[in-house]
Amino acid sequence: RVGLHLGRSPDLLAALLACLRGGLCFVPLEPDFPARRLQAIAREAQLAVVLHDQPALSFCCPAQPLTRADCAPLPWPKQDPELPAYMMFTSGSTGTPKGVVISRRALALFLQSATDRLRLAADCRWLFVTTPAFDISLLEMLGPLWVGGCAEVADSRTYKDPLALAERLTEQPAISHLQATPAFWRMLLKAGWPGQSQLTALCGGEALDTTLAQQLRSRCARLWNCYGPTEATIWSLLRQVELPLAQGRVSIGGSLAGYRHWVMDEQGKPVAAGERGELCIESDALFAGYWQRDDLTAQVTLMQGQRRLYRTGDRVRQLAEDEFEYLGRRDDQVKLRGFRIELGEVEAGLRRLAGVQDAAVRLQGSGETACLVGYVELATAGSLSRLVIRKALQQVLPHYMVPARILLLEALPKPASGKLDRKALPLAA
Description:
Elements: E1 2-5, H1 10-21, E2 26-28, H2 35-45, E3 49-52, E4 63-65, E5 84-90, E6 98-103, H3 104-118, E7 125-128, H4 137-146, E8 150-153, H5 162-171, E9 177-180, H6 182-190, E10 196-203, H7 210-217, E11 220-227, E12 237-240, E13 252-253, E14 259-264, E15 276-283, E16 289-290, H8 294-299, E17 301-304, E18 307-320, E19 323-329, E20 333-336, E21 339-342, H9 343-351, E22 356-364, E23 371-378, H10 386-394, E24 405-409
Parallel strand pairs: 1-2, 1-3, 3-4, 7-8, 7-9, 9-10, 10-11, 23-24
Antiparallel strand pairs: 5-6, 6-16, 11-12, 13-19, 14-15, 15-18, 17-18, 18-19, 20-21, 22-23
Helix pairs in contact: 3-4, 5-6
């Protein structure tokens, strides 16, 4: 397993391809994430080496500077398709990130299915804007290369600046594809981006609302609504959005080739048409398991004879064949700005702070106003300020997991059972 602690440049793609060519498993280490979190991932993944292109952090393994060399075209050797292609770390409810192991077979199946669905060809030019720590970035990097097209890298300044990105899109009409979360698209529209008539837009990571769908579809050549958990290898559903919206809503659907989707009840049995249940995915592209966590793997795996299904934890209602209405999460996992967050991991980070007696976190609001709110019960009143708490969290958690608002409470609301009453948590102003 090789850690990639690399900035946004073509070198990142070259290093990723080198790992795949050599049969190595790459593990993205986003330079913008806190050092302690990256070091924890390196330890958990038991990395053999970290490739870097900037001053290296202190890791538990050797750090190798990335070097460039001119060379002739290299042959692509055959590798065992069951070898891990990459390991992507997602938020864990215990306070420790968990590694999702994706095989070469799964990655190849997804890339072939997705590029076929999108009808990608060698003339495509895809702008890569997503952090490598988010698995959908692999479609932006590898999708166009899979068909002989071009992946164009948005540098560290451009991908964070909606004005710069809008300017780049306007100046480079040859860009044919752009993928982003709803929050990112809203930011781009707010910056005054007028749209591009030849652009294919992909939106996923969070639910696509009707207002945004109408705004994007009217500004682009095509709009795809994407759905899929990391454990099913990037996206498993891709559905084109057309105007006017059917029944005034945006549904998810359109299983990629090699994927099947089922709606199950708590006992793992299919529900009747129109009933609510949990979305489960069957595919050869499912993850191999959580790294060294067979217990967690078993919790989300549903076996039906020889068939293996992944329990997504997402509640849906089946509208028609291969079409679903998304209803939210069945547990305390949430999505914010496209990132999947276990509230338990943020709570664990708060509880580890000296002077914190107890803590709770919840998602408040929706769309652009959505934010994490942290509720903190101090061991001694006045011992910590909101600013101190936030700064401490920024040392151990990625920016998207640090609550935007922190409320200091005398005590968290708990009934006689002693369990936290989340519904009684006050709203943050």
